[in-house]
Amino acid sequence: MNPLAASPDLLRNPAAALPGQPKNLESLRRTAEAFEASFLSQMMKPMFEGLSTEAPFGGGAGEAAWRGFLVDAMAQQTVKAGGVGLADSVLAQMIKIQEQGA
Questions:
Q1: Are 76 and 38 in contact (CB under 8 A)?
Q2: Prediction pTM value
Q3: Omega of the bond prior to 19 within 30 degrees of 0, cis?
Q4: 75, 73, 93: which is closest to 11 by C-alpha?
Q5: By the 8 A CB rule, do 92 and 16 touch?
Q6: What's the CA gap between 8 and 92, in Å, rounded?
Q7: 18, containing H or E segment
Q8: How far apart, in whole angstroms, are the C-alpha atoms of residue 1 and residue 23?
Q9: What would the pLDDT profile of 10-57 be if each residue is shown by its tens digit?
């Protein structure tokens, strides 16, 4: 077993934490998921940079102004739907670092 990998059950269910596990696992998970959403948002932005906002199918200046919010929302929904696995890797590293500090 990979020493850096945390149990998928532990990663998905903080209530399953063992006595030696960090108490703030849910907080760590939220932080890891926020990092993944931020990363995905940055990766998605170039996909929309070349799109025209002109008529007849574009939304004009309003679309250009709100596009960043749309990309952020899509990234957050991607994480909510399971993401790409980055949050799990980040969480495992955060747990390891926290255990080493204890």
A1: no
A2: 0.71
A3: no
A4: 93
A5: no
A6: 10
A7: none
A8: 24
A9: 555 544 544 555 568 899 999 999 999 999 999 999 998 887 777 777
